Automatic annotation (TrEMBL):
GO biological process, one term: phosphorelay signal transduction system
PANTHER family: SIGMA L-DEPENDENT TRANSCRIPTIONAL REGULATOR YPLP-RELATED (PTHR32071:SF119), TRANSCRIPTIONAL REGULATORY PROTEIN (PTHR32071)
Lineage of producing organism: Bacteria, Bacillati, Bacillota, Bacilli, Bacillales
Modified residue annotations for 4-aspartylphosphate: 54
Organism: Neobacillus massiliamazoniensis
UniProt name for this protein: Putative two component sigma54 specific transcriptional regulator
InterPro entries per the UniProt record, alphabetical: AAA+_ATPase (IPR003593), AAA_lid_NorR (IPR058031), CheY-like_superfamily (IPR011006), Homeodomain-like_sf (IPR009057), HTH_Fis (IPR002197), P-loop_NTPase (IPR027417), Sig_transdc_resp-reg_receiver (IPR001789), Sigma_54_int (IPR002078)
Length: 442
């Protein structure tokens, strides 16, 4: 998790020097000041886990310094020292957010115990914030498939799960890349730590950077308070970067630096922060081509390419179709033989996600307990075999164009809904609409 950083503020020089040297020998990073006025700039410029403040300080006292510190770094754990304060002063400090207090003279080992407790308290607070989400994710996590090549891929995923190196997951939209990212996390020693996902193509560049690395109050219009980024939320666990090929080029530089050092800055902040996370990235693009076209940084590609998992499309493992159908329908209804035959001959450009949507639509539209072929709303083209599709279309581009147009039409040209059905980002969908010059029919 990195070295814990401490700031000490005390106007007794001999005691201050003793504390600084003792804690540095114990492996802590330590900064110090003899008064509150010198301490505040340090708190503004550096990130601290623990602050140790004497209550009696010249000019601004320790209680006022505590208040200012909590405004700048709300998560810091503050230990107050007092040789003159009363119990009421200590209680006031606790109400204002201090973690603990010690009365002078105190034993140095007593202070070290208080520091250790404060660090553990901070760690538990951060962990508890994410535990509810972790439990929900674990309960919803399941990968279905018995195909030999698919099982071999699952076996490889399990074998590399405990590694710290980044993983790149490639595969078409809807193949289940996020499920494999979750497998890398929940099959590893990180299983009880956070799994945090972000879609790199879903937000404009500034918002994406803020979401990823966080921001400080006043960093930009609307930044009314400090915000922790997802890299901090993922500390100790896994950060999943979905649709990595969509990430803006300038932000790729900051991501590369984070991958190499674990260090980052919140937007608008001058303080370096450091976390330890396992990074997993996913893309439905061929990043080698994106590098060749100048859309993706070569150094970032090779930093992520240490381990690569390639998820096969559904059409390459059609022997898994019965297992997937059973899983998605969950005994709610049955499929007629004609409906099963239609699905078996379908090309599934949207892969497993599309199968799920087709079955949900069939359940919704069917009368009685049986889903008929007509309830799936597959067109004659969709029901054709792959061979027929190759004969009927001049290229895969034409097939993609027609499929996007059909989904847009069915969604009433609602781009957000269509992108969800297609399994792509809204930005990517707009790019395809422009590429194929698709227009709403008059």
């Amino acid at each position: 998790m990195g070295t814990n950083r401490i700031i000490i503020v005390d106007d007794e020089k001999d005691l201050l020097e003793l504390l600084v040297n003792r804690l540095k020998r114990k492996g802590y990073e330590v900064d110090f000041a003899e008064n509150a006025e010198d301490a505040i700039p340090l708190v503004k410029c550096h990130f601290y886990d623990i602050a140790i403040y004497d209550i009696r300080l010249p000019k601004m006292d320790g209680i006022s310094l505590l208040k200012e510190t909590k405004k700048i770094q709300p998560e810091i754990q503050v230990i107050m020292l007092t040789g003159h304060g009363t119990i009421e002063t200590a209680i006031e400090a606790m109400k204002l957010g201090a973690f603990d207090y010690l009365a002078k003279p105190y034993n140095l080992s007593e202070l070290e115990i208080a520091i250790a407790k404060a660090i553990e308290n901070k760690r538990l607070k951060e962990k508890n914030e994410s535990m509810k989400t972790i439990i929900q994710q674990q309960n919803s996590f399941q990968i279905i498939g018995e195909n030999d090549k698919f099982r071999a891929l699952l076996d490889l995923t399990e074998r590399v799960s405990n590694s710290d190196v980044p993983v790149l997951i490639e595969g078409e939209s809807g193949t289940g890349k996020e499920l494999f990212a979750k497998a890398l996390h929940y099959w590893s020693f990180r299983a009880e730590e956070p799994f945090v996902a972000i879609n790199s193509g879903a937000l404009p560049e500034q918002l994406l950077e803020s979401e990823l690395f966080g921001h400080v109050k006043g960093a930009f219009t609307g930044a009314n308070q400090d915000k922790k980024g997802l890299v901090e939320a993922a500390n100790g666990g896994t950060l999943f970067l979905d649709e990595l090929g969509e990430m803006p080029f300038t932000l790729q530089v900051k991501l590369l630096r984070f991958l190499e050092t674990g260090e980052f800055r919140r937007v608008g902040d001058v303080r370096e922060r450091k976390v330890k996370v396992r990074t997993v990235a996913a893309t439905n693009r061929q990043l080698e081509k994106e590098v060749a076209n100048g859309n993706f940084r070569e150094d970032l590609y090779y930093r992520l390419h240490v381990l690569k998992l390639t998820i096969p499309p559904l059409r390459a493992r059609m022997d898994d179709l019965p297992f997937l159908i059973d899983f998605f329908i969950k005994g709610r209804k049955t499929l007629s033989s004609e409906a099963i035959a239609a699905l078996q001959s379908y090309h599934f450009p949207g892969n497993v996600r599309e199968l799920h949507h087709l079955l949900e639509r069939g359940i919704l539209l069917s009368n009685g307990n049986t889903i008929e072929e007509s309830d799936l709303l597959l067109s004659n083209v969709e029901k054709s075999s792959q061979k027929s599709l190759i004969n009927m279309y001049s290229s895969l581009e034409q097939l993609e164009k027609d499929h996007i147009y059909k989904v847009l039409s069915e969604m009433g040209w609602n781009k957000t809904k269509a992108a969800e059905v297609l399994g792509v980002s809204v930005r990517n969908l707009y790019r395809k609409i422009d590429q194929y010059q698709l227009k709403v029919p008059i």
